[in-house]
Design a protein that fits this description.
Distance between the termini: 47 Å
Mean pLDDT: 93
Radius of gyration: 27 Å
Strand order of the largest sheet: 11-12-13-14-21-18-17-16
CATH topology of the largest domain: Glycosyltransferase
Low-confidence stretches: none
Strand content: 15-25%
CATH superfamily of the largest domain: Chondroitin AC/alginate lyase
Number of helices: 21
CATH class of the largest domain: Mainly Alpha
Helix content: 25-40%
CATH architecture of the largest domain: Alpha/alpha barrel
Number of domains: 2
Length: about 700
């Protein structure tokens, strides 16, 4: 490529991204720009005013501002104001409420924490320094300077650093098991070690300085963690020290003021603003909900109630277009509601109803093996992680949200106990999941017993912005007989590798057709890691669910922008009698195109070609499935190596079966079914499926 051509391509890229920004600006109301300027002004003033004010802040001054005569009076009743239900259950016996396995796991995590050992974001076990380097990404060695956090370059894509590492470290959620272990055995050294970590963080992270004061979301989550830890340790000798308690009071106040001054407003709001508001509600309730604290808390709660229907439509699915962000958003909206109820404050009935809908989605999307699918970004974010279940197990959400009226006496998940405490409910909180259409989000889930299909037939996430959603329209995950077969590739990383970030959220990493090497939704620039164009408008043409079969026919407009437009149309059918999945692709368009249709097999699944158009899949459990396609002579097929990321920072090798065709558009139908179910020849079985289901592709729209 000549230098002149490179320059032309770069100029064209900048013109395109500039046009994209201009188009986005045209869609905004004038008030948005005023709010944007106001937010930036507050950011600037905060980094000047708050550190200056902190020099003269004392616990006495703060106590007066929040309605107490002195800090001693504040802390005298502080234990009663910790706004989490677990601390307000009379005669609670934690040992009797947890199994020995759960207790052992908590003590193991606590032991690691007091040794300053962490394992998160795919890091593996890491022994932290003493004192801890709070502003370091210990995975890459990158260190951010202790300058005003709101002015730091956090992404630094040129050095493959990951700002999530110091942020996750400073959320202090890895210290929570120490508090849980203390509540079980009242072991004073646990309280002392936790106090040392908190004091160290306070000393080495002056307000507004460094990366851990750069993102109000992380400031809010850290505050939630410290409030919870105070509830766990408030009766210990180590946390009864007046000097330490005064430091805590100052920190709670500084955290609240920082969040209040830097609410993360945007033209399309999401989990960042929600976490800000949740943090303010928790801090304000703990500080007594009077004086300044009442002002923050009341405003934050009113904004949460307003934001809830905006961020979560009527079907109860977060518009982040990510299962794992759905979990985070659910927790962020649930925490303040439980906190207010604990303090005897009202929560609208519509708020509880929406939370239960979010629980229904979590219940329905949980795979037969208990894990969540890989839909959208998977960065492991939590609001208050207290359970011992595996990272990708979201079933506790269903139990919690099904038990809001009365806590279960013997919860299945210990996370439920830590969030709600033990109650008297004895009936099972929920029934077996069934097929369901979440129409607003475009998620369709087929299931019957151990057969399961998760289909994304919805718009790009965050109201057409992309955000934590991927280029996965008409993509799917599938399990048959409880065995995962087809998987989404996941997320892997954000800023530590922009190439990996864009690969894992790109069309090729999902089980959906890709045409002419173009993305379903354009990614204007390589460094816009959370933005996509809103090209693919989904269209649902047919849907039905019945005891013997589930059917969906959907299409999207992502390739209407091509010189010769194409509309991909896809039929999904789950034949429940034969435990078979049928996927049929058709393409509305003319002229020649290069079409790729990948199928990403689950980790550990091997594939072998048996004959033309027929493959044998052997899953990690040893179960054998047949994968068959029609018209193999019209498509080139190949088996390639790919990657699947089960959680942030981790990727595992997996196989991909890819069908490719360069020429005039042709349909492709595939079927997957257990080998033991093939009493008749696979070709005849596929022919029967096609005869049964394909006429529906011509069903009137």
């Amino acid at each position: 490529m000549t230098i002149g051509l490179q320059v032309m391509l770069r100029i064209n890229r900048y013109l395109y991204s500039g046009r994209t920004l201009f188009t986005r600006c045209l869609k905004q109301r004038p008030s948005f720009f005023l709010l944007y300027i106001r937010r930036k002004l507050f950011n600037y003033l905060t980094v000047i005013w708050l550190p200056f004010a902190a020099k003269y802040l004392t616990a006495q001054k703060i106590a007066t501002r929040i309605g107490f005569d002195n800090p001693d009076l504040f802390f005298y009743s502080a234990a009663n104001r910790v706004p989490f239900p677990i601390f307000h259950i009379a005669k609670l016996s934690i040992k009797d409420s947890l199994t020995s396995i759960q207790q052992n796991e908590l003590f193991a995590r606590a032991s690691k924490a007091i040794k300053r050992e962490v394992c998160f974001l795919g890091s593996g076990n890491v022994k932290l320094s003493n004192p801890i380097q709070w502003n370091e990404d210990f995975k890459s060695g990158a260190i951010w300077p202790m300058r005003p956090g709101l002015k730091l370059d956090l992404l630094e894509l040129h050095r493959n650093s990951d700002i999530k590492v110091p942020w996750e470290l400073s959320r202090l959620q890895w210290v929570l098991p120490v508090g849980q272990a203390y509540m079980i055995e009242r072991n004073e050294p646990f309280a002392e070690k936790a106090r040392c970590i908190i004091e160290e963080w306070i000393e080495l992270n002056p307000v507004c300085l460094g990366p851990n004061w750069a993102c109000p979301m992380d400031v809010a989550i850290r505050a939630i963690s410290i409030v919870w830890l105070f509830g766990a340790f408030c009766k210990s000798q180590a946390w009864a020290n007046p000097e330490f308690r005064n430091k805590l009071l100052v920190q709670f106040y500084l955290h609240a003021k920082f969040i209040e001054r830097n609410l993360e407003w945007a033209d399309i709001t999401g989990n960042h603003l929600t976490s800000n508001l949740t943090g303010l509600v928790i801090i304000s309730l703990f500080l007594g909900y009077q004086g300044e604290a009442a002002v923050w808390g009341k405003r934050a709660w009113s904004l949460l109630v307003r934001e809830f229907p905006i961020q979560v439509p009527n079907d109860g699915v977060s518009r982040e277009a990510s299962v794992h962000y759905h979990r985070l958003i659910t927790e962020l909206f649930l925490l303040p509601a439980l906190a207010r109820r604990t303090h005897g404050l009202p929560v609208p009935a519509s708020y509880w109803k929406k939370l239960r809908k979010m629980g229904k989605f979590a219940h329905t999307y949980t795979m037969p093996n208990g894990n969540a699918p890989n839909w959208g970004d998977t960065d492991d974010g939590r609001a208050l992680p207290l359970g011992t279940q595996p990272l990708n197990d979201h079933q506790y959400l269903t139990e919690i949200l099904s038990s809001l009226n009365e806590s279960p006496a013997n919860p299945i998940h210990d996370e439920t106990f830590w969030w709600l405490g033990a109650g008297n409910a004895t009936t099972p909180p929920y029934s077996e999941p069934s097929s369901y259409a979440f129409v607003d989000s475009g998620v369709y889930i087929f299931r019957k017993n151990l057969d399961y299909v998760f289909i994304d037939a919805g718009p790009v996430g965050m109201g057409g912005r992309g955000g934590h959603g991927h280029n996965d329209c008409l993509s799917f995950e599938a399990s048959l007989g409880g065995i995962p077969i087809i998987s989404d590739s996941g997320c892997y990383v954000y800023t530590s590798s922009w190439k990996e970030r864009n690969y894992f959220r790109g069309t090729s990493s999902h089980n959906t057709p890709k045409i002419d090497q173009e993305e379903i939704n354009r990614i204007p620039r390589w460094d816009w890691l959370w933005y996509m164009e809103n090209d693919a408008k989904p269209e649902i043409r047919y849907y039905t669910t019945a005891p013997d079969q589930d059917l969906l026919i959907a299409a999207h407009s992502g390739y209407h922008r091509l010189l010769s437009p194409v509309t991909p149309t896809r039929l999904f059918a789950l034949d429940k009698h034969t435990h078979s999945l049928i996927v049929s692709d058709d393409f509305e368009g003319n002229r020649e195109h290069f079409v790729q249709i990948p199928f990403h097999l689950s980790v550990g699944t091997s594939i072998e070609k048996k004959e033309n158009g027929i493959w044998e899949l052997v899953t990690i459990s040893g179960t054998v499935f047949t994968f068959i396609c029609n018209s193999p002579e019209k498509w080139e097929s190949s088996i390639r190596d790919g990657w699947i990321s089960p959680s942030y920072g981790i990727k595992q090798k997996a196989k991909i079966l890819i069908f490719e065709r360069n020429g005039f558009l042709e349909p492709l139908t595939i079927a997957i079914f257990p080998k033991e179910e093939t009493s008749i020849e696979p070709e005849k079985r596929l022919s029967a499926f096609m005869h049964k289901y394909l006429p529906l592709l011509n069903y009137p729209k």
